[in-house]
Write a structure and sequence with these properties.
With 829 residues, this protein is of the alpha+beta class. It folds into five domains: 15-199, H-NOX domain (Alpha-Beta Complex); 203-272; 297-454, 2-Layer Sandwich (Beta-Lactamase); 468-569, PAS domain (Beta-Lactamase, 2-Layer Sandwich); 576-824, Heat Shock Protein 90 (2-Layer Sandwich). It is built from 25 helices and 23 strands. It has a five-stranded antiparallel sheet, sandwiched between helices. The protein has a five-stranded antiparallel sheet with strand order 13-12-16-15-14. A five-stranded mixed sheet has the order 18-20-21-23-22, covered by helices on one side. β14 (530-537) and β15 (543-554) form a beta hairpin. The longest helix has 67 residues, at 230-296.
């Protein structure tokens, strides 16, 4: 049972909120009331908040739901600050709806009007059922019972009461008394109103007197005819009849006045609606023309002139002008009509350019961004200062409307119209109309200024693009050029016109075509930016190396329509890179030669030992030959040992030759232990002579590195050489070198027991030609060579040291895998 109730409740709420219940005429009565009493409020804002479109608002057959009604009431109270706005607007319902007014006038009787309200109500609302019952003279019971599933709000109850008051006032020319004895919103099942009015109309009263006189006069006349002579009877009867006729004539005169007054009100109402319809028509035509003008004219002055011309032709304003402000917020008369040259001069010199201690009318409207209506300029001392009053007098202004031109909270200017004393007064809808025109004007001005800024920005960017030394280009989704900057001619010899519409792949050199096509396809799918190096063909078929930076090209909806890129000629960079590499190679060779010079003594000792042994063997063998004491077995052993010593010499000389080469640049899998073994072949003897021990601690099963064996050997030769220089003063020292796997890299830690490096110097030790050694000792490029080789191997090297704590270098190198083969690929491929 509980579930059923819940289901019914949800159904009721859905019905209440979404079912069309109320005629759009009700909201129109609110809007009509706002035009008269709150002209500054934006109607579009109210309708938009309620979820009612302009098309629906103008549709006589449109019905809106309870949710829309609540939202309309919500913003209405917020904007007006009037909690009784529903009651006030209800009193305006009949006046704003001429069809209903004409229907009620057909009765010419207040009682019949009340009885007819039930029929009228059903034409405006499906939310409740209304019944009307007469319960006394000039007294009626009015009951409104909500239909099933409908939950009206309290403001709608107020609106209904206001509608009753306004309807009867339209007939009896005064508000009736209404007692709200029962209310749906106070827990009753319906709303009950007792409607009555105390005094009948003057016409009704005199007609009643006439009827009483006739009823009273008949028996009196009969009685007198028997009691008085005929002459007296005739005189009295004639006098009495004259009184009755006089009363009748007076009653008829009052009736004619009432009818005339009602007809005048109907005429005024019809005239008001005719005026509104005429204004709507002219406003529609005005906005159509403004829209047409702004679509073909992109000049601010031309647009203002066109709007002023349409104001004069389409609307009933004999004089008007438009004021705009410049970047310094100074007023200037942009356009006017209906004024003489002398009057325009007065406006320019005295009103806009004149000096006054008080804030002018224009400044107030401009700053507050609110319209102002002055009905009588000569009696507006509280609004206008003395300067304003004096100028208005010179211009013969009687009344004036001034509205701000505002776009996105920024005041752009003002529109003002005025009337002379001989002209008709402004109507309540004039302010709202001018506000709409000002809004359209603001939008048009903003669009023109935005377009001008866009043109200026485009010109500035085009100038920038066409003057930079890079090629800026765009291509569509098919890969065809849609724009190429003129710099293309300088770099390739092609003009931009020659390339427009052509496939960009046509100017890519053959080795790069496949790669570029794949990158283009991937870029369209991912929308990512990319940077890479390729070669393009010049007009004379020469390859030009360029660096490409490419990004997605989108429209204003964010949809990709192609790619935009910048191509930079890097021919000079390649030459400089080749020169730099040549210099680096020279530096490396120089460093190797310096290293070879340093280790020459040790290597000579390494070679001298086996040579001495071979010499002794040869001398001994010659002596045995001379003494004929040759022993074949001993001789074979001596020769084998001599060959081993020769092999040792050959190995040392071969390694020296390999180490000294500068053309070995290939990358291969490298075993760190072998690199260190070869390093010690060159450095062991020198370390021994300088009394320096070296301890190598390698993690078991250390993975292969990916690099160049000789260059890595150069790293450790330079580090050991650096340590020997640091330990020379001590006369002895120790070097510890360890290696282990750490996060898919091999971490090599190299430490010595020297004096260390000043922390202030550590940032500079890898810079070329920086040295802390005395003049004539060291080249200053050893550690910079180390740094360059490690960088080339995609590794890192850092120094951790302190004075008196020795020096520690931590080197990280990538472990060999199939993916690291790309390390040996040329740049930009």
């Amino acid at each position: 049972m509980k579930t059923n109730c819940s289901s019914m409740k949800n159904t009721d709420i859905s019905y209440q909120e979404e079912t069309p219940l109320y005629s759009i005429r009700i909201i129109r009565s609110y809007i009509d009331h706002l035009h008269k009493n709150y002209p500054q409020i934006s109607i579009d804002k109210l309708l938009d908040h309620a979820g009612i479109s302009k098309l629906q608002y103008n549709d006589d057959g449109y019905w809106y739901n309870q949710r829309q009604a609540n939202r309309f009431q919500e913003i209405l109270v917020s904007e007006t600050g009037n909690k009784n706005i529903a009651l006030d607007a209800g009193r305006n319902l009949i006046k704003s709806q001429s069809v209903f007014a004409q229907y009620l006038f057909s009765f010419q009787n207040a009682g019949k009007v009340v009885s007819a309200i039930g029929k009228i109500y059903s034409k405006a609302s499906k939310a409740a059922t209304v019944s009307v019952r007469k319960i006394g003279e000039n007294k009626y019971e009015f009951i409104s019972k909500p239909n099933p599933g409908v939950k009206e709000e309290y403001y709608q109850c107020k609106n209904r009461k206001g509608s009753l008051e306004g309807t009867l006032k339209f007939i009896i020319h005064d508000y009736p008394t209404i007692e709200h004895t029962s209310c749906y919103h106070k827990g009753d099942n319906y709303c009950r109103y007792l409607v009555y009015w105390e005094k009948p109309g003057e016409t009704f009263k005199w007609k009643r007197i006439r009827n009483y006189l006739i009823l009273l006069g008949l028996p009196i006349s009969g009685f007198i005819s028997f009691q008085l002579p005929f002459n007296y009877f005739l005189l009295s009867s004639t006098s009495f009849l004259s009184i009755i006729l006089g009363v009748t004539q007076y009653a008829n005169l009052l009736e004619e006045k009432r009818l005339k007054r009602n007809l005048e009100e109907m005429g005024n109402l019809a005239e008001s609606h005719w005026y509104e319809y005429n204004v709507r028509y002219n406003t529609t035509k005005l906005f159509e023309e403004i829209g047409r003008v702004t679509s073909v004219k992109q000049n601010e002055r031309e647009i203002i002139n066109a709007i002023s011309r349409e104001l004069k032709q389409k609307l009933d304003f004999q004089r008007g002008f438009v004021i705009l402000v410049d970047s310094l917020k100074c007023f200037s008369l942009s356009n006017s009509y209906g004024f003489t040259n002398e009057e325009i001069s007065v406006i320019n010199n005295s009103w806009l350019g004149g000096e006054s201690n008080n804030e002018s009318i224009w400044q107030r409207v401009f700053k507050k961004q609110e319209p102002i209506l002055i009905e009588d300029m000569s009696r507006s001392n509280d609004i206008l200062d003395s300067n304003d009053l004096e100028i208005a007098k010179k211009l013969k202004m009687h009344s004036m409307i001034c509205v701000p031109i505002v776009h996105e909270s920024e005041s752009l200017g003002l529109i003002a119209v005025d009337s002379l004393k001989s002209q008709k007064e402004f109507r309540e809808g004039d302010i709202n109309l001018l506000m709409a025109v000002a809004s359209q004007t603001a939008l048009s001005i903003a669009n023109v200024r935005s377009f001008q800024k866009l043109q200026e920005s485009e010109k500035k960017h085009r100038t920038f693009v066409e003057t930079i030394r890079d090629i800026v280009y765009t291509i569509d989704l098919d890969g065809r050029f849609t724009y190429v900057s003129p710099m293309i001619a300088v770099i390739t010899g092609y003009t931009d016109k020659e390339l427009l519409g052509r496939d960009f792949i046509e100017i890519i050199t053959s080795p790069y075509k496949e790669t570029v096509m794949q990158r283009f396809s991937d870029g369209l799918k991912s929308g990512e930016t990319a940077t890479y190096e390729i070669e393009i063909l010049s007009k004379d078929n020469k390859a030009v190396p360029v660096e490409i930076n490419v990004a997605p090209l989108t429209n204003n909806k964010g949809q990709m329509i192609g790619r935009i890129g910048v191509a930079r000629d890097i021919t000079r960079r390649h030459k400089e890179e080749a020169k730099r590499q040549e210099m680096a190679m020279r530096a490396l060779t120089q460093d190797k030669l310096a290293s070879l010079g340093e280790i020459a003594t040790g290597v000579a000792h390494e070679i001298n030992q086996p040579l001495s042994y071979i010499k002794i063997i040869l001398e001994s063998t010659l002596n045995d030959i001379e003494n004929e004491k040759l022993n074949r077995a001993e001789l074979s052993g001596d020769f084998n040992e001599s060959l081993r010593q020769v092999g040792k010499i050959t190995n040392i000389i071969s390694h020296l030759r390999t180490f000294g080469r500068s053309d070995v640049t290939s990358f291969n899998p490298v075993k760190l232990s072998m690199v260190l073994d070869d390093t010690l072949i060159l450095m062991n003897e020198r370390l021994r002579i300088k009394n320096i021990t070296i301890e190598i601690q390698l993690e078991e099963y250390l993975p292969l590195l990916y690099g160049n064996h000789i260059k890595l050997e150069q790293v450790f030769v330079n580090l050991i050489q650096n340590s020997m220089d640091a330990l020379e003063e001590q006369g002895k020292g120790e070097i510890i070198l360890s290696a282990q796997v750490d996060n898919n890299e091999v971490l090599i830690t190299y430490s010595d027991t020297g004096n260390g490096i000043d922390p202030k110097m550590q940032e500079k030790i890898f810079e070329p030609f920086f040295t802390t050694k005395e003049v004539g000792k060291g080249t200053g490029i050893g550690l910079s060579i180390v740094y360059g080789i490690i960088q080339e191997h995609k590794g890192t090297i850092i120094c951790e040291s302190g004075m008196g704590k020795g020096a520690t270098f931590k080197i990280r190198l990538p472990i060999y895998s199939e993916s690291t083969d790309s390390l040996s690929a040329p740049l930009g491929a």
